[in-house]
């Protein structure tokens, strides 16, 4: 079992122990978090659904991210990540939603938003959604996406532990 599978099992176990379903809202990972989770036998007991919202329109239509949020702050921002997580939670049966939006490269980075920048949104039922910023080393698109999956799941575990 590799590191990504181990953290996926830990996340699924944490959901199962707390009797909560999980949802994902993914942009830069294009569904890799959901794919990682659903590759684990028994994941159907806790995985509710995944939203792949690669375009700005998808973020607005599927998750309810305000068009004004994207216009003012950008798709890769604290505000968008938080709204993505909140929207996934509200539009699912989940008790926790993990959202990611970032710049996996190789192009698309700017001085303010470099390749490797990822915003993580975490929403847990009954708690205020939060967003966490990470900048991964630019070791290529696959590396950034893989680290985003691993980190999102770890943040989910941490959030569930905090939920008691």
UniProtKB/TrEMBL annotation:
- Name used for this protein in its record: CinA family protein
Sorted alphabetically, which Gene3D superfamilies does this protein's record hold?
A: CinA-like
> Could you name the domain of life of the organism this protein comes from?
Bacteria
- What are the CinA C-terminal domain coordinates in residue numbering? 6-155
Pfam families membership:
CinA
User: SUPFAM superfamilies, from UniProt?
Assistant: CinA-like (SSF142433)
